[in-house]
Design a protein that fits this description.
Length: 476
């Protein structure tokens, strides 16, 4: 339960997939429009009209429920996925229900726990990498995917790291992700040409190819723009990238570990803030999104989901909630993407089956639809757009050159992300990562803001916060 309290440390920083999204329903259920009858099919066969070659195993959990319920912390994905899947699927008379808590990912776990205690209906449960193990290791909450007729070999096309994250402490596969979440550096191509004389993404990558070069380019940009344009938006965004290269777990044998990469970041972050290589704006607020519509920044670090959830609104583009028509903002189409200083990931959402589901066949269908079935995976990848966890599908899209999003002026950002996706490894992940990384980031921000007076004070504050929030972790 200490981890529940610790999640509050990260709400404003590592919101993860889906962002800190407002919603008309907070911690409540909302029925999706469905005119079908309330009686569901008693069959345990997969009812999807879109077939796959996988999933021939026995379904051991209950089927035939009258409501298929999905629970998540944000509507950003499910509001798109659920209607698409429903259109291709025979629900056997079941209605659909989306429980949207409308919070950042770091705030979700305590709300999930309260919902489970209420006894209300859940079939499909979404979790993030940073706190997935909280539920994957709890057999009262999540069931093995084999219980819905899906074996690990059925997911052989998925990136290996996505399968590793979805396993419990005993190596049992309990969750799979439809996304792989490699990240990149999205930058304003017009400002790059104006201030850095950079005309192509290849030239820009040379300007940000490692952290030393990144810092030199930040200085060059500052000089050329007379201090008006920062190379990146926030320290928190830089930390998201930098912390992905950590080689050792934050907690080993129950003890907090602070390696040299963490201390190196403190110094780099302070320099970047002091010299205005990044702004002093906080992430996930209106001012942060607004930076993309001005010349205050060159770019954002974003993951695959960040294209629609961060970058698109940051350009000033708005989507009508009813018609889905877009009104393009002032910087739409003025962006490109490169890998940046290092390969990294940000976020990811894993689909798990609730042990008390009464629609195991529909859970199976939904998971297959967005991970295994190549046709529907490709459709979602291109239309969303989303870098999917199905490696052959993404490699096919890159080879075909079919991904030409207008926001990037036709540049295939999937090709950029594809270079990073195969290098992602989350072998060092622990159940405490979200809280610990957030606590470290908060201490660094306080140092940059002048609230702490030394690097030593940052480490001391960080350790104190971890000790207070995670009493089961030993802090020296």
């Amino acid at each position: 339960m200490a981890l529940v309290a610790a999640l509050a440390l990260t709400a404003s920083v590592f919101v993860g997939c889906g962002g800190d999204t407002s919603s008309s329903s907070s911690s409540s259920s909302s029925k999706a429009d469905d005119s079908s009858s309330s009686s569901a099919s008693e069959s345990s066969d997969d009812s999807s009209d879109v077939s796959s070659d996988a999933g021939n195993g026995e379904i051991k959990l209950k089927t035939g429920g009258d409501t298929f319920t999905v629970m998540a912390w944000t509507p950003d994905d499910i509001d798109v996925m659920l209607p698409m899947w429903k259109e291709d699927t025979d629900l056997g008379g079941a209605e659909t229900n989306f429980v949207n808590h409308g919070v950042g990912g770091g705030q979700a776990a305590d709300l999930y726990d309260a919902y489970f205690m209420s006894g209300d209906d859940v079939d499909l449960l979404l979790v993030e990498a940073d706190w997935a193990r909280r539920y994957l290791d709890n057999d009262d909450v999540t069931a093995p995917l084999s219980d819905i007729g899906l074996k690990e070999e059925d997911f052989s096309d998925l990136y290996e790291y996505t399968l590793n994250v979805g396993k419990d402490k005993n190596g049992v596969l309990k969750g799979v992700a439809w996304q792989a979440c490699p990240g990149g550096y999205a930058y304003r191509s017009d400002l790059a040409e104006k201030f850095l004389n950079v005309k192509t993404p290849e030239e820009m990558q040379e300007k940000v190819k490692d952290w030393d070069t990144f810092m030199k380019t930040a200085e060059e940009l500052s000089t050329a723009s007379k201090g008006a344009t920062a190379l990146a938006a926030t320290v928190s965004g830089v930390w998201q990238v930098f912390s992905s290269d950590r080689k050792t777990p934050w907690v080993e044998d129950g003890k907090l570990t602070v390696d040299e990469s963490a201390t190196k970041f403190i110094s780099m972050a302070k320099t970047m803030r002091d010299k205005k290589y990044v702004t002093d704006v906080s992430q996930w607020n209106d001012a942060w999104f607004g930076l993309g519509q001005t010349d205050d920044i060159m770019g954002y670090f974003i993951s695959t989901w960040g294209v629609g959830i961060i970058l698109e609104p940051a350009t000033g583009t708005k989507t009508d909630p009813d018609t889905k028509e877009k009104t393009f903002g002032p910087t739409f189409g003025k962006w490109n993407m490169v890998v940046g200083p290092q390969d990294y990931y940000w976020g990811g959402t894993w689909m798990t089956v609730y042990t008390k589901t009464d629609n195991a066949d529909l859970v199976k269908s939904f998971i297959e639809y967005f991970t295994i079935n190549k046709e529907t995976v490709k459709e979602y990848a291109l239309n969303r757009p989303e870098y999917m966890s199905n490696k052959p599908v993404m490699e096919e899209i890159v080879a075909d050159g079919t991904n030409k999003p207008e926001i990037f002026a036709g540049q295939d950002h999937f090709k950029v992300l594809n270079d990073a996706a195969s290098k992602i490894s989350l072998d060092s992940i622990t159940p405490y990562d979200s809280a610990i990384r957030g606590a470290f980031n908060n201490a660094v921000i306080d140092y940059c803001d002048g609230k702490l007076d030394s690097e030593e004070a940052v480490i001391e504050r960080f350790k104190d916060d971890v000790a207070a929030a995670l009493p089961d972790v030993t802090v020296d």
